Each structure stands twice: as C-alpha cells, then as structure tokens.
TrEMBL record:
<dbReference type="InterPro" id="IPR036961">
    <property type="entry name" value="Kinesin_motor_dom_sf"/>
</dbReference>
<dbReference type="Pfam" id="PF00225">
    <property type="entry name" value="Kinesin"/>
</dbReference>
<protein>
    <recommendedName>
        <fullName>Kinesin-like protein</fullName>
    </recommendedName>
</protein>
<dbReference type="InterPro" id="IPR019821">
    <property type="entry name" value="Kinesin_motor_CS"/>
</dbReference>
<keyword id="KW-0067">ATP-binding</keyword>
<dbReference type="GO" id="GO:0080175">
    <property type="term" value="P:phragmoplast microtubule organization"/>
</dbReference>
<dbReference type="InterPro" id="IPR044986">
    <property type="entry name" value="KIF15/KIN-12"/>
</dbReference>
<keyword id="KW-0175">Coiled coil</keyword>
<dbReference type="GO" id="GO:0003777">
    <property type="term" value="F:microtubule motor activity"/>
</dbReference>
<dbReference type="InterPro" id="IPR027417">
    <property type="entry name" value="P-loop_NTPase"/>
</dbReference>
<dbReference type="InterPro" id="IPR001752">
    <property type="entry name" value="Kinesin_motor_dom"/>
</dbReference>
<keyword id="KW-0547">Nucleotide-binding</keyword>
<dbReference type="GO" id="GO:0007112">
    <property type="term" value="P:male meiosis cytokinesis"/>
</dbReference>
<comment type="similarity">
    <text>Belongs to the TRAFAC class myosin-kinesin ATPase superfamily. Kinesin family. KIN-12 subfamily.</text>
</comment>
<dbReference type="GO" id="GO:0007018">
    <property type="term" value="P:microtubule-based movement"/>
</dbReference>
<keyword id="KW-0493">Microtubule</keyword>
<dbReference type="GO" id="GO:0005874">
    <property type="term" value="C:microtubule"/>
</dbReference>
Length: 477
C-alpha cells in the first residue's frame, strides 16, 4: 500500500466543517450559459519561465478570465538511500530545483489552496475541475481519493489523511446546510466513469460499457445512459466513491502494485434555486465539479510491462500524449491570440473534458511527483507539462438563469384574458373612461408573455375592428 504523501506545501489547520444533511428538494434542470470566446490576454513569451501561483480566490465575480492553478505534491522519501539519491533539491521555502531548473510554488495547505475555493466557486455558479497528473506510482490516486478506509461509512469525520475528494464534499454539504433556506434550495447529483482503452464504462453500473459521448447544442457534452445518483450528504458521496473505485480497472507493475489503468472522472452537478419574495423572481444556478484522476504515464523500462500490460501502457501514453498535444495548442492560442483548430475529438478524454480545457470552467492541475533518482526523467516531464498548462486561459462564467415568478405571469395572463373577453362581449369604446384596451393590443400583450412562460401560445390574427371570435385555451396558460 502506498504510504502517506507529505506535500512540499506546509500543513495548515484543517478548515473542513463536518457534514450535515441538507433538505431534499425537487430537481430543477436548466442549461448553463454558453460564453462567447474572447481573445485572451497575451502571457509572457516563454510560459516555462512563469511562476506557479496558487493563491485562493478571495472574491467571486460573474466571470473570470483566469489561468490554470497548478499545485505540486511531492511523494515522501521512504528511506535514507532515496534521500541520498533524491533528484529534487529544496532551495527555499517556496522553490525547488530539478536538473538545474528552478520551479516556484506558494507555501499553503493543499486543501486550503484547492478545496476551499473550489467549493465557494461551485456555490457561486462556476464550473470547476481538478486534474491529478503524474507518472504511475507517484500518488495521484492517493492524493485525490485518500486511503480506502477514509471513505468508510463509519468514519463520520474526515481527517487530514483523507483525500481531496471526501474533504471537498464534506465542506460542500456543510456550506449547503448553512446557506439553504425556504427561499434558497439546493440539489446535487453525481456520476462516476472511467475511460479504459478509449472505452467509457459507468463505474456505478459496470454493466454499462462502451458508452457514447454526445454533444448537444443546449446541454453541451454528456455521456449517454450514464448513471446519475441524487446525493444529500458526504456519506452518500463516499459510498459512490467506494463503489466506483472498487469497479475501476487496476493492475500491478514493478513500480505500483495497484496501478490505475484508466482515467476516472467523478462529476457532481450542483443546482440551486433562489426565490426572491420582494420582486417575485427566481434565479437558477447550475455548476459542475469534475474530479479527474488521470492514468499514470509509464516507461516500459521502468515498469517492466509486457504483453497485455504493455498494450495498456501504450494506450495510456497515447491518450496522455493527445492531452499534451491539446495543451500545447491551447497554450499557443492563449500566448499568441491566433485562431487554430483545437483537436478536442482526438481522444475520449479530451472530448469529454473540453469545457475544462480552455472553456467555461476554473481548472486546477494537481501534479504528483517523486523525488527518486530513478524517476528523474518523469518528474522533470511532469513539471514541464505543468508549466505548459499554466499558460492556458479559461473563461469561466457564472451559470445563472433568472425567471419571473410563473404564478405572477399566469395571473397577468388571466387578467388579460378577462379584459379580452370583456372587450369581445361589450365592444371597445375608448371614450367610456374605463381604461379598457382594444383586442389587438391585448393580443399583443399576450404574445409578449409567451417567451417568459416558455409555453407555445398560438393565437389567431385579430383585426382591431373585426368581429371574429377568439378562443384562448385555458390549459395552455
């Protein structure tokens, strides 16, 4: 079993409130806004010289033209020999060196750096994604999900040994419980999948294999027939995580006895409805959290893979290479502002996660590295990849839709119908001082109600002075 990781980042006091049971609410479905791409600001000419900044988001606005947050977590040295052979030198409290190249970081606790802003951004309506990247055996899976016993149902409190995912959802449901009122209601549902040899499998129902990724103009990218489960507490989420992780594809190599052989994606969609009593309007927000545990890059010489394991490794490296190629193009577009074809469809992984890569999401890359001399090449490659990702610019927006209260609109329409009936019965006399309206004017008012209620409202043409009877279906209003 992999030993506990000790981050390069110093530890801070845990800021993870205990979970609570939010009220179950009726599900509301709506489509996030699609933000038009704007030309991103030009970063420095050499993105590899940029400092890795990991500062939490203190404020939330309705849009964010931001770069990718990059965090590095260092696997602990297991024995004195590894310490002597360590390829990484810590230069100061906020920098390290490998192969003569210096890399900067900020000294903050990982959960404070990633988890806290992720939850706050989610509740504000932003999509957020965390990618765990690194060579096989570097601790990506441990960092993301934690040790298996940390997800057990009997563990009511998640400690600092817990992975990022359970701590994120512990805080999320605690914050939902704080925020939820009669006017503000939340609903969450989750899914869990893996991409293995370019085939998508539902980890919550392993019988669903080779699922298809679809793209819809209204709902965006989705996986057809993927299981979605309603969740109300962190325990609900942990049960899904345990079930999915038991169903994922793993295999033994000389580097890692339980090597993940697939990319896994856990998604939680958070929907909220805020009803204003003052102006009788409702605001709907939807946000998505993607936690992505990428399969580890491998070198055949290091892992000793042969036969089917070698074929698996080839597929993993090919998928990661396609991701790297996409990252290079996105970094170039952000750097130069030139328009280029973005090859999202080169792989199932990039197709599924294209919103997180240069799109409407806040993205964090969590790089797991090893200090061992034998891993020098892979560690250096991981840090170089991190610097390229840092050059990408995402355009995250708050996914919010505002609706007038439906009951209010229905009341207005009924008043207009009564007025229309009166006009058709008694005739329209502008000099009678009753404040009445002509049939044509009432009809135009009814037409204006149509897009606000999202109901088809078919009305026959009425001449202002005509005697034609007009019927309005009561059930259509």
């Amino acid at each position: 079993m992999m030993k506990k990781l000790t981050p390069v980042l110093r530890k801070a006091k845990r800021n993870s409130p205990s979970s609570a049971n939010p009220k179950s609410t009726q599900k509301h479905r709506f489509t996030p806004f699609k933000d038009k791409e704007n030309k991103p600001p030009k970063p420095p000419s050499n993105p590899l010289k940029r400092k890795l900044h990991f500062l939490p988001d203190d404020t939330v606005s309705t849009s964010s033209d931001s770069g990718v947050k990059v965090v590095v977590r260092l696997k602990p040295i297991c024995n004195d020999k590894d310490e002597v052979d360590s390829v990484i030198q810590k230069i100061s409290s906020d920098s390290l060196s490998i192969n003569g190249h210096d890399f900067m970081f900020d000294s903050l606790d990982m959960f404070e750096l990633i988890g806290v802003p992720l939850v706050e951004n989610c509740l504000a309506g932003f999509n957020s994604s965390v990618f765990a990247y690194g060579q096989t055996g570097s601790g990506k899976t441990y960092t993301m999900w934690g040790p298996p016993n940390s997800l057990a149902v009997e563990n009511s409190i998640i400690d600092q040994q817990g992975g990022l995912a359970p701590r994120v959802f512990e805080r999320l449901f605690a914050r939902i419980n704080e925020e939820q009122t009669d006017q503000l209601q939340y609903q969450c549902h989750c899914s869990f999948l893996e991409i293995y040899n370019e085939h998508v499998t539902d980890l919550l129902d392993p019988n669903k294999r080779n699922l298809q990724i679809r793209e819809d103009v209204k709902s965006g990218i989705y996986v057809e027939n993927l299981t979605e489960v309603h969740v109300c507490t962190v325990k609900d989420v942990n049960q899904l995580l345990m079930k999915g992780l038991l169903n994922r594809t793993v295999g033994a190599t000389s580097v890692n006895s339980e090597s993940s052989r697939s990319h896994t994606v856990f998604t939680c969609v958070v929907e909220s409805r805020c009803k204003s009593i003052a102006d009788r309007t409702s605001r709907f927000k939807t946000s998505k959290i993607n936690l992505v545990d990428l399969a580890g890059s491998e070198r055949q010489k290091s892992t000793g893979a042969a036969g089917y394991r070698l074929k698996e490794a080839g597929n993993i490296n090919r998928s990661l290479s396609q991701l790297g190629n996409l990252i290079n193009i996105l970094a170039e577009v952000s750097q130069t502002g030139k328009q280029r074809h973005i090859p999202y469809r080169d792989s199932k992984l990039t197709f599924l996660l294209q919103e997180s890569l240069g799109g409407n999401a806040k993205l964090t890359l969590l790089c797991a590295i090893s200090p061992a001399q034998s891993c020098r090449s892979e560690t250096f490659s991981t840090l170089r990849f991190a610097q390229r990702v840092k050059a990408i610019k995402n355009k995250a927006v708050v996914n919010e839709v505002m609706h007038d209260d439906v009951n209010q609109l229905r009341e207005v329409i009924r008043e207009l119908k009564d007025e229309l009936h009166r006009v058709k019965t008694n005739g329209y006399n502008p000099s009678d001082g009753s404040g009445g309206h002509s049939a044509a004017l009432i009809r135009r008012s009814l037409i204006l109600m149509q897009p606000r209620l999202h109901y088809p409202l078919s009305l026959p043409h009425i001449d202002e002075d005509g005697d034609e009877e007009m019927e309005i279906d009561e059930e259509g209003v």
